[in-house]
Write a structure and sequence with these properties.
The complex is a heterodimer. Chain A is mainly alpha-helical. Chain A has one domain. Chain A has 2 helices and no strands. The termini of chain A are close together. In chain B, helix 4 packs across helix 17 and helix 5 runs antiparallel to helix 15. The chains are: A mainly alpha, B mainly alpha.
Chain lengths: 61, 488
């Protein structure tokens, strides 16, 4: 098995992304009435799932 | 007999027949040991592994509970459900491969056996089995009650719903254990996703246009009424109360923990995570869209206001063609069965491995013994559903909170398996489980399960307090030995 080179940075970044998932809606998007909140949660999840899967399949995490 | 009941009966027969055929054919994979029965002998391919993970995770709550929650509380429900998915996939990517490798190396079959082995303590295994019983049986009971209520609303009878649900749960499990559960889960997972897609397309291209409105108008009214914002329901403590127990689902719920062991190789594991991510994302978006569209139609005066959260989906379905409505009703049954049989199989694995096999009891056929335990757990859940005991059904709301003490104990041992067998670590883990579980259960008894779920102290929900207490206790077990270790 190849060494998982990006495991530590990925884990740290994941914690940051998860924290943003909670913080941004309650700090920045609290007053938004359009699709901003929906798009924020959907796109954050979609992008991070895509990055996670790419890194996982390539044995980097 | 109404058109809807007739269509539902025919759809049910088709669903049961095909599912039973799939379960029967899965016997060809062969079940000779408890490893084969409970974890497919670690031989599942990526498609079955990911579909059984998805179908087990996503219960009837999605099409009934989440639609209703979105209808009443707006887009915050999307944040809650996606938070679960995001953290779960991170856990699957970072910790899952290690767990998969350790499971094969150490021969784990049940999640309680895993913890018992990681901490070198039988007592921990017994406590975990106890927690599973208290937390998981009400959850299965709630699934049965939900299905029975659907049967009752269609005029087929409450008891008939319990009989159908428990018969399917039992038969599709005992035929070939994990093999029959995984193959039927894949079938049911496809049914669930297809039904959600059919419902959303029907709303977008049939119900909305025939009501004389457009998606843009629906979105405008949702925006205007604040349903695309954080509504008053989703205060930060409420969002934390919903998400904290769920983000640790992958490490606490036995029916999904055991699904980390089952892949035939690492390539299969990785592919299954990719497919599960896609499934979870699409299914979540579809279900939340249904709730939002229903609310938009209500706000436009095109769909009567529904006062009960769990009645939104049935009321919506009642406006559809009977065949489509039946297809969706059966998908709710499929979601309930796929979750219930996986839970019962896993809880049974804890009984068989920890309480019988590991104690060296011999002379019993593993297959017969496992099937007997599965049957007893199914009958117990069905009986509780039949009694409609309010406290038991309410307790299902707290399932993830009751399981939460397992999160720090499990994750710490996954991260440091070479340290977890120490005396202090073991003691701290046991204390953590006992304190966490008794705190959660104590709150449930005094405040009632539903109030406990949303009660907060100093802005922190009960689940956060339990997580903090158990994390500190567990971590202390890992840190103290390092601090007091004599210098050499």
């Amino acid at each position: 098995m190849r060494p998982r080179r990006l495991r530590t940075p990925y884990t740290i970044l994941s914690i940051v992304v998860i924290a943003l998932f909670y913080v941004v809606p309650y700090v920045t998007l609290k007053e938004s009435r359009g699709l901003e909140l929906t798009l924020f949660w959907s796109l954050t999840t979609l992008i991070w799932l895509t990055i996670t899967n790419l890194l996982l399949v390539r044995d980097l995490i | 007999m109404s058109d809807l009941l007739l269509a539902f009966s025919l759809m049910l027969v088709a669903y049961v027949s095909l599912g039973s055929l799939i379960a029967y054919l899965s016997r060809r994979y062969g079940v000779k040991s408890s490893k084969d029965y409970f974890v497919s002998g670690y031989r599942l391919g990526w498609f079955l592994a990911s579909m059984t993970y998805a179908a087990t995770t996503y219960s009837a709550f999605m099409m009934v509970g989440l639609v209703g929650l979105t209808y009443f509380s707006g887009v915050g429900a999307l944040g809650f459900e996606l938070a679960y998915l995001l953290v779960t996939v991170v856990i699957l990517a970072v910790l899952g491969p290690t767990v998969w490798a350790m499971a094969r190396e150490r021969g784990w079959v049940s999640p309680s056996e895993m913890l018992s082995d990681l901490y070198g303590s039988r007592a921990i295994g017994y406590v975990v089995v106890g927690i599973y019983l208290v937390a998981m049986i009400p959850y299965v009971t709630a699934q049965m009650v939900g299905v029975a209520a659907i049967f009752e609303s269609l005029g087929a009878g409450y008891e008939a719903g319990i009989v159908v649900m428990s018969a399917l749960t039992l038969v599709w499990t005992v035929l070939a254990g994990m093999w029959s559960v995984a193959t039927t889960d894949a079938y049911q997972g496809i049914w669930m996703l297809s039904a959600a897609a059919a419902l959303i397309f029907s709303l977008l291209y049939n119900v909305a246009p025939s009501s004389g409105t457009t998606v843009n108008q629906v979105m405008s009214v949702l925006s205007e009424k604040g349903f695309l914002s954080i509504t008053s329901f989703w205060t930060l403590p409420t969002f934390l109360a919903y998400t904290i127990p769920w983000v640790f689902f992958a490490a606490t719920n036995p029916q999904v923990v055991v699904r980390l062991y089952v892949h035939k190789d690492m390539g299969s594991y990785k592919k299954s995570v990719v497919l599960f991510s896609a499934y979870g994302f699409i299914y979540t978006i579809a279900v939340v869209c249904v709730g939002l569209l229903a609310r938009g139609l209500t706000e436009l005066g095109l769909f009567g206001f529904v006062s009960k959260q769990d009645s939104v989906t049935p009321t919506l379905i009642s406006r559809l063609h009977p065949v489509l409505a039946s297809f969706i009703y059966v998908s709710i049954l499929a979601a309930a069965v796929s979750t219930a049989d996986s839970i019962i199989l896993t809880v049974a694995s804890s009984f068989v491995r920890d309480l019988i096999e590991k104690r060296g009891v011999s002379g019993v056929s593993v297959f017969k013994l496992s099937n007997t335990v599965v049957a007893l757990l199914t009958i117990a859940s069905a009986y509780l559903a039949y009694l409609r005991l309010g406290f038991v059904v309410d307790l299902s709301v707290l399932t993830s909170v009751l399981l939460l003490p397992l999160a720090p104990v499990t994750i710490a041992a996954w991260l440091a398996p070479h340290e977890s067998r120490g005396r202090v670590q073991r003691g701290a883990a046991l204390l953590s489980l006992l304190v966490g579980a008794s705190t959660a259960f104590g709150f449930a008894l005094t405040l009632g399960p539903r109030r406990t779920f949303l009660t907060s102290y100093y802005g922190l929900p009960v689940s956060a307090l339990i997580l903090i207490i158990t994390s500190i206790t567990t971590l202390a077990g890992y840190v103290i030995p390092k601090l007091v270790r004599p210098k050499t």
